[in-house]
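Lecture notes, continued. The same structure-token format from the folding unit now serves as the input rather than the output. Read the line below as a description of shape only.
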């Protein structure tokens, strides 16, 4: 729903599984990158059961220009043991209660930053 809402608003969205976390990087400009793609915004979607390395990546990315969002809580780590993921993430992450609200927040941010949307085909 989140990616579809962004697409309908004219913004392309990549769905990158967190298993690809090692392919995500913070570039010299401080932004979050995946391969050759630089991101204005990134959403950590339902991070339950993620390893702590995911929190470390988002903490690192929070120092740069990529706006960070989260949908869903994070109370257990990859091993199923209790983990305070919500507290481990940086305070700069905007928390959304659901995909629709998050999409609206991302679209508002992209509009504010004058990111050009693309016509729907």
């Amino acid at each position: 729903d989140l990616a579809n809402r962004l697409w309908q608003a004219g913004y392309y969205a990549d769905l990158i599984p967190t298993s690809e976390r090692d392919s995500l990087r913070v570039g010299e400009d401080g932004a979050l990158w995946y391969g050759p793609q630089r991101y204005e915004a990134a959403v950590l979607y339902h991070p339950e059961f993620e390893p702590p390395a995911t929190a470390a990546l988002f903490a690192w990315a929070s120092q740069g220009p990529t706006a960070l969002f989260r949908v869903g809580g994070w109370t257990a780590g990859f091993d199923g043991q209790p983990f305070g993921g919500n507290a481990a993430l940086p305070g700069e992450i905007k928390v959304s209660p659901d995909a629709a609200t998050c999409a609206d927040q991302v679209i508002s941010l992209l509009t504010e930053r004058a990111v050009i949307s693309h016509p729907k085909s």
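Point for the exam: The helical segments are 2-8, 52-61, 85-88, 99-112.
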